[in-house]
Design brief:
Blueprint: H1 4-21, H2 27-36, H3 51-64, H4 72-78, H5 85-94, E1 98-108, E2 113-118, E3 126-130, E4 143-151, E5 154-164, H6 169-176, H7 189-202
Parallel strand pairs: 3-5
Antiparallel strand pairs: 1-2, 1-4, 2-3, 4-5
Helix pairs in contact: 1-5, 2-3, 4-5
């Protein structure tokens, strides 16, 4: 669990760096990402009314989409664009970010921390993720697809979260373990696209306070 003052500084760095990383993207890359996620049509028009989908396309363009083996986040880290230690630490964490389906097993509202169990990893490891907004409304047993960023020995979310009621656990796992999706890694664009689809099918709104 991160100290809250440290969390606030790294959160400010997250907002600035996410925007700066996007400067390493071409318009063609964003279109390619949007089409892969089925959020942009063949004419280049956005087909979703959900404002969150814009953030999802930008995240996917920044971190999941690669050209010659490198993402925009990789290029930003190599260019050393961080102007202070928090921005540099965030960029290092961003290129090591990973995604999974997690089950909320504990909520520390005072410490703004959610303890999540990884359901897609055979070790079922638990992570303490610091998130001031989401920790105020998260409930034990809820399922979340989250992208976790390691920073300063702890973990934060990148802000892209899909939430599901616990009653859908078996249905989600069945979909994930299907022949088509078997073996999808935590760094795979296919995993993100699958859970984007599942979020539309059975997800619940993520509420922040």
């Amino acid at each position: 669990m991160l100290d809250l003052e440290l969390y606030k500084k790294i959160s400010a760095a997250r907002k600035k760096m996410n925007s700066k990383v996007s400067e390493f993207l071409s318009s063609a890359a964003v279109l390619r990402a949007g089409r892969y996620l089925r959020l942009i049509d063949k004419n280049g028009s956005f087909i979703s009314d959900d404002e969150e989908d814009i953030k999802r396309v930008i995240y996917f363009s920044n971190c999941e989409l690669k050209t010659d083996g490198k993402s925009a986040a990789d290029l930003a880290l190599e260019a050393d664009i961080g102007e202070n230690e928090f921005e540099k630490e965030y960029l290092k964490g961003l290129v090591r970010a990973f995604s999974s389906l997690f089950e909320v097993v504990d909520v520390n509202r005072k410490g703004a921390c959610i303890t999540c169990r990884d359901l897609l990893n055979s070790e079922k490891r638990e992570y303490e993720v610091t998130d001031i907004g989401f920790s105020k409304t998260a409930k034990i047993s809820n399922l979340i697809f989250n992208i976790i960023i390691p920073v300063y020995g702890g973990f934060i979310s990148n802000g892209i979260v899909f939430s599901f009621q616990s009653e859908y656990k078996n249905a989600i796992m069945k979909e994930y373990n299907s022949i088509e999706n078997r073996g999808v890694s935590s760094h795979s664009p296919k995993r993100f696209r699958l859970f984007l689809y599942l979020n539309r099918k059975m997800g619940t709104p993520v509420i922040y306070e």
